[in-house]
Design a protein that fits this description.
- Chains A, B: InterPro entries: GntR_C (IPR011711), TF_FadR/GntR_C (IPR008920), Tscrpt_reg_HTH_GntR (IPR000524), WH-like_DNA-bd_sf (IPR036388), WH_DNA-bd_sf (IPR036390).
- Chains A, B: GO terms for molecular function: DNA binding; DNA-binding transcription factor activity.
- Chains A, B: Pfam families: FCD (PF07729), GntR (PF00392).
- The structure is a homodimer of 233-residue chains.
- Chain A is mainly alpha-helical and 233 residues long.
- In chain A, 68% of the residues lie in helices and 4% in strands.
- Chain A has eleven helices and three strands; from the N terminus they run H-E-H-H-E-E-H-H-H-H-H-H-H-H.
- Chain A has a three-stranded antiparallel sheet.
- In chain A, a hairpin with a 3-residue loop joins strand 2 and strand 3.
- The radius of gyration of chain A is 21 Å and the shape is elongated.
- The interface between A and B is large, with 39 and 38 residues.
- Chain B binds a DNA duplex (30 and 30 nucleotides) through helix 3.
Chain lengths: 233, 233
DNA sequence: GCAGCCAAAAAGTCAGACTTATTTGTCACG
DNA sequence: CGTGACAAATAAGTCTGACTTTTTGGCTGC
C-alpha cells in the first residue's frame, strides 16, 4: 500500500508476513532460510534481507545452527503499521479492531484536549472543514465520501495535539475507520449523533475549550466501542 | 540491550541508527551503500541487511540510482522500541521524555481502569507486592531498588489491562522511568505522595473499583508530567 | 525550446565458496 | 551409571565478484 513494489524481498514479506501474523506458524516454529529461499524462488541474499526485517519487527529470531524461530505473539512489535495491516487482513481481525479501538478511546480524548490548547488557526479551519464534509455526506449512502472526511478529521485532531506520538497514530486510526466501513456491517448512513459530536468537537477546539473537547471526543470513542460490542460481541 | 551482538549488521545499526535518529543526517540526506560498507568495513550484503532494517523502521528509503535517503522525522516509526531507545540516548532526550510521558498520561489511567475489571487474583497479588516493594525502598537513598519495583508495578498494570496494545507499552514506560532515575535530576527519595498513590491504585484494582483506579492513576501521571515541567521547562 | 534517446550511476540480484557458532551425539573415564 | 570432554554435523553468517535493472540527467537533433 504505502510502498507496494519495493523489490523482491518486499514480495516475500507480502506473503510471509501475513502468514506469520496469522499464526500459521505457531510460536517456536522453525523455518530454514534456504528452504524459504527455494519456496519463494529468490536468492539467499534476498531471503536474508526479508528475515532481517521480520526480525526487526520481533516476529522471528534468527539463531545459528537452529534456524529462524517464530516468536510468541506477546513479543511482536504490534505498533508497527506494517504488522497492524497484516493482522487486520488476517482472521483475528475483530480482536484487532477491539484492541485498536480501545487504544483510540484512551488516546483521542487526550489528544483533543491538547488540540484545543495548541491548535493553530489553520488547523482549526481544517478541522471544521472535515466536520462539514462529514455532515454533507452523512445522508444518502455516501459512506465512502463520509469515510474520507472522517479519517481526515481524526488525523487532524491527532496532528493538532502537537504530540508526535499521538500524531503517528493517525495511520492506525484511519486503518480502523476504513476497516469498519469496508469489512464490518455498517448501517447505510452513519449515526447522526456521531456526526453532531464531530462538529461539536471542532467547535470546542476552535473555542479553546479543552475539557469540552476531551469530553465530546470521549463520547465519540465510547460510541465506537459500543458499536463494536454490538456488532462483534 | 535486548539482543546485543546479533551479528555484524547489528553492530552497524548500533552506530548508524543513533546517528540518524539524532539528526546527524538531515532529512533528504543521501547515503550510498558502498560508502557505508566501506566505512563500517563490512561487505555490501551485510550493509544491505542493515539498510533494510532501517527502511522497515521508516528511517530511510532506498531508491535505485539515487541512494539511501533519510526520511523526515514525521514518518519514522516512533513506536519501535529500538527507535525509542536510540532517540532517548540522543540529544533531544528531554523532548522525547515529554512526548512519552504524555503518552503515559493518556494510556495508563485507562489501563488501570481496565485492570480493575479484568485483573486475576495473581495479578492483584503481583501488583500489591510491587507497591509494597516501592514503599520498602522509598526512604534511604535506595533509588535503584525503588525503580525496579516501580517499573514492575506499571508493567503489571498494563499487563492486567488485558489489552495487547497497552501491554506492549510496558517496555516504553520502563524506559521512561529508568531514564528519569538515571539521567535527570531526581530527589534523593521519591515523592511520598506518589508512593501512597501506587499503593492505593493496587487497592482499588483489587477491590474492582475501576473509576477510582483510573482517577488515582491519572494523579500519578499528572504528577509525572508536572515533575517534567519543573525539571525541564 | 522540446522530444526523445543514450550513457552513467547506484541499487538490486544471484551464485558459490568459505567461516563460525551451536547443538548433538559419542565415547572414554570416573 | 553418570559425566565430562571431544568430535561431527548443521544452519546461519560473511565475503566476493559478476551481472541486471531502473532511474536520472544530459545531449543531440529536429
Amino acid at each position: 500500500m504505502s510502498t507496494p513494489g519495493r523489490g523482491l524481498h518486499g514480495h516475500v514479506l507480502d506473503t510471509l508476513g501475513p502468514e506469520i501474523t496469522a499464526g500459521e506458524y505457531p510460536p517456536g516454529s522453525v523455518l530454514r532460510t534456504d528452504e524459504l529461499a527455494q519456496r519463494f524462488d529468490v536468492s539467499r541474499s534476498v531471503m536474508r534481507e526479508a528475515v532481517r526485517v521480520l526480525e526487526s519487527m520481533h516476529l522471528v529470531q534468527s539463531r545459528r545452527r537452529v534456524g529462524v524461530t517464530v516468536r510468541p505473539t506477546a513479543e511482536w512489535n504490534v505498533y508497527d503499521p506494517q504488522v497492524i495491516r497484516w493482522r487486520l487482513a488476517g482472521k483475528d481481525r475483530p480482536r484487532q479492531l477491539r484492541s485498536l479501538t480501545l487504544l483510540r478511546s484512551a488516546i483521542e480524548p487526550v489528544a483533543a484536549g491538547l488540540a484545543a490548547r495548541h491548535a493553530t488557526a489553520e488547523q482549526c479551519a481544517e478541522l471544521t472543514e472535515c466536520a462539514l464534509g462529514m455532515v454533507a455526506n452523512s445522508r444518502g449512502h455516501k459512506l465512502e465520501e463520509y469515510l474520507v472526511h472522517d479519517m481526515a478529521f481524526h488525523r487532524a485532531i491527532l496532528d493538532a495535539s502537537g504530540n508526535e506520538m499521538f500524531a503517528r497514530l493517525g495511520d492506525v486510526v484511519a486503518e480502523v475507520l476504513a476497516g469498519r466501513t469496508h469489512h464490518d456491517v455498517m448501517f447505510e448512513d452513519p449515526d447522526p449523533a456521531a456526526v453532531t459530536l464531530h462538529v461539536q468537537v471542532a467547535e470546542a477546539v476552535r473555542a479553546g475549550d479543552a475539557v469540552r473537547a476531551e469530553e465530546l471526543t470521549r463520547e465519540i470513542t465510547v460510541g465506537a466501542l459500543q458499536e463494536l460490542d454490538i456488532l462483534a460481541p
